[in-house]
Each structure stands twice: as C-alpha cells, then as structure tokens.
Design brief:
The chain is of the alpha/beta class and about 500 residues long. It contains 17 helices and 10 strands. Helix 8 packs antiparallel against helix 9 and helix 8 crosses helix 11. Belongs to the peptidase S28 family.
Length: about 500
C-alpha cells in the first residue's frame, strides 16, 4: 500500500471527484509525489549476487492468436542450490508491480534462508513493469487500452507458471519442490498461484497480502481507520492536528495567492494547481508511513528512522507555539519526504519505482473500494462512489472496471470455507500496524492455512533483511515461517520417496 498493497503495497493517477477518493496501492494506486532525489532501493544491491536473464514469454496465454512474444526478466541465484538429484527446492518470488531488482533487494529473508534449505532463488519480473515490457518498450506497451489489455493478474500468474515449468525442465529438476514468496501485491499473487496452480508449487508465504480488499468483503473504511489509529496511538494531539489540517489547506487555498503560499510553505518545486494536489501528497505520505512504521531505520520507500510515525508526531507536536497548523504539518511530513535533509524542493509527478501500470490494473480488475469515516479517520470524510470511479477510469483509459472479476476468478467470498476445503500450505503473515492487514487473512483456517499476526509489524516486514535491531517477536515470526516451510518440503520429499518405492516394487 492511498488515493488508490502493498505490499508491496502512490499518486500519479488521481481521481478528480469529491465523492470518491482513489485508494492506496501497493504501495499506492496513484503515485502522487516524490521528493526530487534518487530512487530508494531499500537493500544494498551489491550485497546480493544474482544473474540477470530473460525468458521468451507468451503475450496471451489464453488464446492461440499469433501475437509477439516479450522478454520477461528474471534474477537467479544458484549459490546454495543442492541440485535436482537432491530435490533441492526452488524459491520463487512472485514479482510485484515494479522493478524486480527493487523487490529482490528488499526481500532479504529469502536470501538468508536459502543456505539452510539448499534452495535455488528466482525472481521473475511482473509483465509490464521494469524491463519486462511487451511490444518492445514501455511507450508502446502503455500506448492504449488495446496494448495494455494483457496486463492482468491471470496473465501474470500464467507467466510464473510457464516460466518455472520451463526452468525446471531445463535444469532436469522437474521433481524439485517450488515454494512461492511474495509481499503486498506479490503476496496476493503467491497465494492465488498456490490456489490456481497447486501442481506448480507446494506452498506459499503471502506477506501483507490483502486478498479480501474487494467488493464488500471487508468494510471500506478499514484501510484509513488503521492508518489513523497508527497515528492516534502515538499522539492524540498529532492525530487531531492532521484531522484539522485538511480544512486549513482548503481555507488557505481559497485566499488570493493562496496556492502560491501553500507551494512555498510545503517547498514544492512548482506552484500547486489545486489544494487536491497537496492533500493527495500528504495522504500518500501518511499512508506510506503507516505501512513502513518499522521498528528500525529503513529505506524501502524513503529513507526513514525507526518508528517513523513517532518521529512525525514529535515534529508536529513539538513545533514552536507560534507555528501555524500548516507549518506543523510540513515539519511532520518532512520526516517522510526529506528525512535526510538533502531535498531542496518537492515534485508531485515523479515515479522512481516504475509503478504506473497499477493505475491500469486498478481500473480493470483490482478495484479495491475504500472510504474514510468521520468518527475514526484523520482524513477527509468520503464514501466510495463506484459511478465516479468508473467514470474516471473511462476518461483515463477508455475502459470500464470489473469490480467482481477478482472474486469470480480467484475467490474471496466465504474465504474460510473455501480455503479450508480446497487450499493448503499457505502462510498469511501480517503486522497490524500495516493498513493492508485489514484486507488479509488474520486467523488460521486449517492446520496448513496459517495466519501469523504480529501487533507491531509493518508492511511485509518479515520479508525484509534481518538486522541486529530485530525485536524478539519478529525473530520468532520468521522462525515459525521457516518451520512451516521445512514441514512442507519434508512432507513432499517423503511422498516422493514413497511413490518411488511403490513404483520400484512393481518392477
């Protein structure tokens, strides 16, 4: 994760209606702002060894039309793989809506456990993101609704299935078990792939995966209520200042030269066109801060201190007594946008992580209704208005959303009965500080559909690299995940041995 993770999980496609605000993506559906600085990669790319390769992928897996193929990028590391003869496992990270290197270098947990399991690591990139562009380049791929029509979750899942099947064949490792990993949208893909292609992978770790954030499966105000509560638990006065700031922004914007003054107060590189731009910029920061309210310093989205919401509220509450409400807000939000102090001014339209394709996905399949309640939310009150949402999607892309398609194709209604009856070997891990946790599975559904929930956890924190500052509960969460994955692989191998013995006895 929100004008409309993830995980996973920003604002460039802004719905211009007062009745329905766009909802956050993974990290957000709309990428509204970035400081003018180099993209934050999160992990040190040089600390992970991998080869970059490309796989010739079908553009459309569900027709026999003569369409051009495209090169799907993937990262691979075999340093610790025990090989096909030992049934060495393959750990596959389901690529998110962005550059695969960004996610690979922010998924240290997978790298760290590879030696323990003797695993081959592969990180296939999601189509239409990073370098995996159909039609040869981004400009052609994003040209119109026709060229974008192959950017769907079904096609992406099929990509992963075809890719890993071909990889195993080339390595003569058809019997090697595959374990899926993913955070935010990638976590959703991991869970869905385990359900849709159970013969491809033996299990999935779906971290911060809001597979229930559709239709009326969860209350639409859940996301913003969690964001707001994250701030309120740090400081009720901070919560109230933010809640009051929206009216102050509008009032200032209505003054003569008000937009210029707001631009100056918040240090924008160019003058604001409307107060909505500023509100979206702030909304984006608060939502991200809730997602990455990690217990130690990190730079997944931006360089941030540990417990960044605490630091934001310290700035807001600790401002001088003569500081205006908007000056207090600027001091607080600068923790997110300029913690390093190196940014001179802020841009509203940068997309350093290449996440813009999510705008299309949100206007087709990934319709996640969100609203902001008057009672519990520190954001402006609004209700989700599907008619407005639909109109904006049509004006932007010339398409109408299909809000019920995800639950039709991949499930969601009566999830407990469905997964208990037809699913197995899925870990849903969530931290309750993460606003996307409200749309995920938060209780065990069976002995093998397990929910690991932590009170203080943020957005797919368990997938991040371990640090000396890791709290005990995070260490224990990862240890539980390792035990579960070990059991999946042990059971798989025992069944393979039993099948071989039975076959041998029949000779």
């Amino acid at each position: 994760m929100a004008s409309h993770l993830v995980l996973l999980l920003i604002i460039s496609f802004v719905f211009s209606t007062s009745s329905s605000s766009p909802s956050p993506r993974f990290p957000r559906q709309t990428l509204q702002s970035r400081a003018r600085t180099q993209p934050s990669r999160g992990g040190d790319r040089n600390s992970y060894r991998y080869e970059t390769k490309y796989f010739s992928q079908q553009l459309d897996h569900f027709s026999f039309a003569d369409l051009p193929k495209f090169s799907q990028r993937y990262l691979i590391n075999s340093d610790h793989w025990t090989g096909a003869s030992e049934l060495g496992p393959i750990f596959l990270y389901c690529g998110n809506e962005g550059d695969i290197e960004w996610f690979a270098t922010n998924s240290g947990f997978i790298w760290e456990i590879a030696p323990k399991f003797g695993a081959l690591l592969v990180f296939p990139e999601h189509r239409y993101y990073g370098e995996s562009m159909p039609y040869g380049n981004r400009e052609e791929a994003y040209k119109n609704a026709t060229t974008l029509s192959y950017l769907t979750t079904e096609q992406a899942l099929a990509d992963f299935a075809v890719f890993v099947t071909d990889l195993k064949r080339n390595l003569s490792a058809e019997a090697s078990p595959v374990v899926l990993f993913g955070g935010s949208y990638g976590g959703m893909l991991a869970a869905w792939m385990r359900l849709k292609y159970p013969h491809i992978a033996i299990g999935a770790l779906a971290s911060s995966a809001p597979i229930l954030q559709f239709e009326d499966l969860v209350p639409p105000q859940t996301f913003y209520d969690i964001v707001s509560n994250d701030f309120k638990r740090e400081s009720s006065s901070c919560f109230s200042t933010i809640k009051d700031s929206w009216d102050a922004i509008i009032a200032e914007g209505e003054k003569e030269n008000g937009l210029q003054q707001l631009s100056k107060t918040f240090h924008f590189c160019r003058a604001l066109n409307s107060t909505d731009d500023l509100s979206g910029w702030l909304d984006s920061a608060y939502s991200y801060l809730a997602m990455v309210d990690y217990p130690y310093a990190a730079d997944f989205m931006m360089p941030l201190p540990g417990h960044p919401i605490k630091e934001v509220c310290r700035k807001i509450d600790g401002a001088s007594s003569d500081a205006s409400i908007l000056e207090r807000i600027y001091a607080g939000v600068s923790v997110y946008y300029n913690y390093t102090g190196k940014v001179g001014c802020f841009e509203l339209d940068d997309d350093p992580h290449g996440l813009d394709g999510w705008n299309w996905q949100a206007c087709t399949e990934m319709v996640m209704p969100m609203s902001s309640s008057q009672e519990n939310s520190m954001f402006t009150t609004y209700d989700f208005n599907y008619s407005s949402y639909k109109e904006d999607c049509w004006n932007t892309f010339g398409v109408n959303p299909r809000p019920r398609w995800v639950t039709t194709e991949l499930g969601g209604h009566d999830i407990e009965t469905t997964l208990k009856s037809f699913g197995s070997n899925i870990i849903f891990s969530n931290g309750l500080l993460d606003p996307w946790s409200g749309g995920s599975v938060l209780k065990n559904l069976s002995s093998t559909i397990v929910a690991l929930v932590t009170e203080e956890g943020g957005h797919h924190l368990d997938l991040r690299p371990s640090t000396p500052e890791d709290p005990k509960w995070l260490v224990e969460q990862r240890e539980a995940e390792i035990r579960l994955i070990q059991e999946w692989i042990r059971t798989y191998r025992l069944e393979k041995v039993a099948q071989f013995s039975l076959l041998k006895s029949s000779w």
